[in-house]
Amino acid sequence: MADLNDIRTRITTLDSNLLALLSERRELAIEVAKSKQSTSKPVRDQDREQQLLVRLINQGRELGLDSNYIMNIYHTVLEDSVLLQQAFLQQIKNPNAAVSVARVAFLGDKGSYSNLACKKYFARQDDSLVELGFPTFQQIISAVEKGQADYGMLPIENTSSGSINDVYDLLQHTSLSIVGELTQPIEHSLITTSDTDLSKIKTIYAHPQPFAQCSLFLSAHPHIKIEFVDSSSAAMAKVKELNNDTVAAIGSITGGELYGLKPIRTGLANQTENYSRFIVVARKPVDVAVQIPAKTTFTMSTGQQAGCLVEALLVLREQGVNMTKLESRPIQGNPWEEMFYIDVAANLQSENMQTVIKQLTRITNQLKVLGCYPSEDVAATDVPEDLL
């Protein structure tokens, strides 16, 4: 029987080799992006991705590897490759937007969900990251407007609790542009200072959004008092400060580790697939390279007459522009009037989208483009059973 230390040494060597190969693959992904600079060829070629996965799954089976194992690994690798190429092409398309140090404003402190989203989004950039935590969404927007921060990271919707209305309302009145987006899995855990039992918990500290997303779990424990705080990081900091096995916070395991906290219950969200979508805002808009799938977000208000909204939405259909989000919010100061927020899967510079903007400007009371930005939704390529 092989010595355990020898086995671990071999594993360490293999892991180092894997990292070197993954780094080399990333470099080749950038070379692919460079080859597409002078063409309009899309970053993604899902037919080729499917062929690649089929070949790798069949090759893996010969080596005794499970197909799901292969799929999980390469979905991550392919997603990283796509987003890396997109980031490279965007830097070429927007040379004046480059900064050596990216100052990013986010909600809460280090370890908050917004902070983790910042780290993930800007990990694909070459810039150094300066993290600036703020207690409110308004202060985040103000910091970017005043030049105290280059970017702001704002959560805008969640699959469990829905739209974050405070952010939508602030977008009505800011001159900032949406320049990016990120969809992040949100895994809520109950975290404490010790391995205490759930039955001992008397108080839970939570931000209102995680509270709403975990309402089913919390309703099953009505004896526990809920204390609301400005962010998940503030909840974790409070629990660390109290250092008592009767208090807990709702937060992420990764964030909790920064505060020396440990999970006593995981998977608290109402939905198993719990995701939050974040937007990135900046003072100036960006242009989206034609090789990259783009989203455009705009607001509009229509007349009060019957059929006005339908007439506006028909413009999108006539131009073949796919609407991915429709949200309505009251117009402050105008009772019973609504502002509609619309996301479409289209590049603002495309001919169809330019026609949409011109036609909507004529038939709506107000129209404002909030931004055109790369779509970060990299759906995993499926492999039908009949191809395996």
Architecture overview:
The protein has 388 residues and is α/β, with parallel strands linked by helices. It folds into four domains: 11-94, Chorismate mutase (Chorismate Mutase Domain, subunit A); 95-186 and 275-282, D-Maltodextrin-Binding Protein, domain 2 (3-Layer(aba) Sandwich), CATH 3.40.190; 189-266, Periplasmic binding protein-like II (D-Maltodextrin-Binding Protein, domain 2), CATH 3.40.190; 294-374, 2-Layer Sandwich (Alpha-Beta Plaits). It has twelve helices and 15 strands. Strands 1, 2, 3, 4, 5 and 11 form a six-stranded mixed sheet that branches. It has a five-stranded mixed sheet with strand order 8-7-9-6-10. Strands 13-14-12-15 form a four-stranded antiparallel sheet, with helices on both faces. Helix 2 runs antiparallel to helix 3 (67-93). The longest helix has 32 residues, at 4-35. It is globular and about 80 Å long.
Task: Write a concise keyword list for the protein shown above.
single chain, 388 residues, alpha/beta, Chorismate Mutase Domain, subunit A, D-Maltodextrin-Binding Protein, domain 2, 4 domains, six-stranded mixed β-sheet, 15 strands
Write the layout of secondary structure elements.
Layout: H1 4-35, H2 46-62, H3 67-93, E1 101-107, H4 113-122, E2 128-134, H5 137-145, E3 151-158, E4 162-163, H6 165-171, E5 177-185, E6 189-192, E7 203-206, H7 208-213, H8 215-219, E8 225-228, H9 232-242, E9 247-251, H10 253-258, E10 262-266, E11 275-282, E12 294-301, H11 308-318, E13 323-330, E14 338-344, H12 351-363, E15 366-374
Parallel strand pairs: 1-2, 1-3, 7-8, 7-9
Antiparallel strand pairs: 3-4, 3-11, 5-11, 6-9, 6-10, 12-14, 12-15, 13-14
Helix pairs in contact: 1-3, 2-3, 11-12
InterPro entries: ACT-like_dom_sf, ACT_dom, Chor_mutase/pphenate_deHydtase, Chorismate_II_sf, CM_dom_sf, CM_II_prokaryot, CM_P_1, Preph_deHydtase
Binding site for substrate: 8, 25, 36, 45, 49, 81, 85
Function: Catalyzes the Claisen rearrangement of chorismate to prephenate and the decarboxylation/dehydration of prephenate to phenylpyruvate.
